[in-house]
Design a protein that fits this description.
It is built from eleven helices and 19 strands. It is α/β, with parallel strands linked by helices. It folds into two domains: 320 residues, Glycosidases (TIM Barrel, Alpha-Beta Barrel); 121 residues, Sandwich (Jelly Rolls). The strands form four sheets. The protein has an eight-stranded parallel barrel with strand order 1-2-3-4-7-8-11-12. Strands 13, 14, 15, 16, 17, 18 and 19 form a seven-stranded antiparallel beta sheet that branches. Helix 7 links the parallel strand 3 and strand 4. The chain binds beta-L-fucopyranose. Beta-L-fucopyranose binds next to loops. The site of beta-L-fucopyranose has 6 residues, from loops.
């Protein structure tokens, strides 16, 4: 035993010295990742960016009265979807490519799609399933079953409640949030609508009521209550002003051509007039990470109206909206309202299917997959930050430059002449949004020809070339950035 120990020990020491003294050169020379450019997204916001497309569902008594804003005096008797099928909703939406669903559990009219214990104005007093139905539960369960995330819209403005405008209404609203989050969660996104105050039924008063939007709801307390009810996974709060997701400033489906995920929350508050442009672009030096969500409807209205069956947006229009939302680094929240039967209408299904095919066709073959990529420089000449990271299909690795180098030029060899229509770039936003200006060129007749240009990049930027171009080489020039640009992916279609 003794002898064995003595012979083994030198061997072990020798081997240890060999391996520890000849470290992998690559590892030793790899410079650390660039310092973050603050603010940066939270983990929950990163997950949300990756979802890209969510569906909105507007459904309530309005579906049966043909209104957009119910007055609050609608009888629950009219809520009677004969064939409601949450599974049909969710499978239709999943096939179209949506990753989450946000349901209007209560719109401005105050009617609740779940049997809330705090009011009689709900499904429990409707003919739907003889008062035994619970639309929120059905949708939340269908989402879970089909792997979509579930979100809630609970209108702060309530035209049914007699006490709207008083402190007791705020308590009611908070009770409902607690009830919803503890019964139907987890909820990924909570949507706070900005429309507030005005005329309504208000328990029979039938009058106009105004509230001070900046103070009445006591939002900080409400948000803390929701966070305490659902500590994990973190809920993302959407409103005109965040705090986690901001409105994009219009309902037409148009994200900012310049689109910073950053904005300073003290420049915003719900209902403040004239900030649509700011919400659309965000601000380059914004103090918080509050990305824009592009919400729009597949129909002219948010609720189903038979008269709009012929006005469902075309697949081409939806494709354009996709490019102007997801393609500008935002996420798309597309509203698809079920009809009076409680089904997504055939006209909407047809357009969603055709749109999905257009998306699949346009982005079918990434001509840059594993393509040879070169750059004028890369960080520390280290393989960890080399241009090959751009075409490796891995969003978690990136090309970047040495500290202080805020521009760069990248070339992608396509191997042979190909027809290029779109160039898709992704920034590694985990360390902050940086790119301020970039352009794309194609190699044509022995020269670089400009084919597209943009300002911000963000989570994803899809550039549609002015016209399809025949080329075997694409050049991307990052012209300016807040600090070293970090690009995780380049795809060419
Ligand atoms: C608006 C509301 O007034 C509309 O009815 C709809 O819910 C839309 C998404 O937000 O502010």
């Amino acid at each position: 035993m003794e002898l064995k120990k003595q012979t083994l020990l030198p061997t072990i020491l020798f081997l240890w010295s060999v391996f520890s003294c000849s470290p992998n050169k690559q590892v030793e020379n790899t410079p650390p990742a660039p310092e973050p450019v603050f603010p940066v997204p939270s983990e929950a916001q990163l997950d949300w960016h990756e979802m890209e497309m969510n569906a909105f569902i507007h459904f309530t008594t309005n579906t049966f009265t043909d209104l957009e804003w119910g007055y609050g005096d609608e009888s629950p008797d009219i809520f009677n979807p004969s064939q409601l099928d949450a599974d049909q909703w969710v499978t239709t939406l999943k096939e179209a490519g949506f990753k989450g669903v946000i349901l209007t559990v209560k719109h401005h009219d105050g009617f609740c799609l779940w049997p809330s214990k705090y009011t009689e104005h709900s499904v429990k007093n409707s003919p739907y399933k003889n008062g035994q139905g619970d639309v929120v539960k059905e949708v939340a369960e269908a989402c879970r079953q089909h792997g979509l995330k579930f979100g809630i819209y609970l209108s702060p403005w309530d035209r049914n409640r007699a006490d709207y405008g008083q402190a007791s209404y705020v308590a009611y609203y908070r009770n409902q949030l607690k009830e919803l989050f503890s019964t139907y969660g987890p909820v990924f996104e909570m949507w706070f609508d900005g429309a507030n105050g005005g005329d309504g039924y208000y328990g029979g008063a039938r009058e106009e009521r105004k509230i001070d939007r900046s103070s009445y709801y006591g939002w900080p307390v409400t948000l803390d209550l929701v966070r305490a009810t659902q500590p994990q996974p973190a809920v993302l709060f959407f409103s005109d002003a965040g705090p986690d997701i901001r409105w994009c400033g219009n309902e037409a489906g148009v994200g900012g051509e310049t689109n910073w995920n950053t904005i300073s929350s003290d420049t915003l508050y719900a209902g403040k007039a004239g900030i649509e442009k700011l919400l659309n672009t965000g601000s380059e030096n914004g103090a918080q990470w509050i990305p824009a969500e592009v919400n729009t409807s597949i129909r002219p209205g948010w609720f189903y109206h038979a008269r709009e069956d012929s006005l469902v947006k075309s697949p081409e229009k939806l494709f354009e909206i996709y490019l102007a939302s997801v393609g500008r680094g935002s996420s798309l929240l597309l509203n698809i309202p079920p009809d009076r039967r409680g089904l997504i209408h055939e006209a909407d299904i047809a357009t969603l299917k055709a749109w999905r095919s257009m998306l699949d066709e346009a982005f079918k073959t990434n001509l840059a997959e594993n393509a040879v990529a070169t750059a004028d420089s890369y960080r520390g000449n280290s393989a960890a930050y080399a241009p090959s990271q751009l075409t490796d299909g891995d969003e978690d690795t990136y090309w970047t430059t040495d500290d202080g180098v805020k521009s760069g030029s990248i070339e992608i060899q396509l191997g042979k002449v190909q027809t290029v229509k779109y160039v898709v770039l992704q920034e590694y936003i985990r360390l902050g949004q940086r790119v301020k200006s970039f352009s794309v060129e194609a190699w044509k007749n022995q020269a670089w020809v400009p084919v597209a240009a943009a300002s911000t990049l963000g989570y994803k930027r899809i550039l549609k070339l002015n016209e399809p171009v025949e080329t075997d080489k694409i050049r991307i020039r990052i012209k300016d950035a807040k600090a070293s640009p970090l690009i995780s992916q380049v795809a060419v279609y």
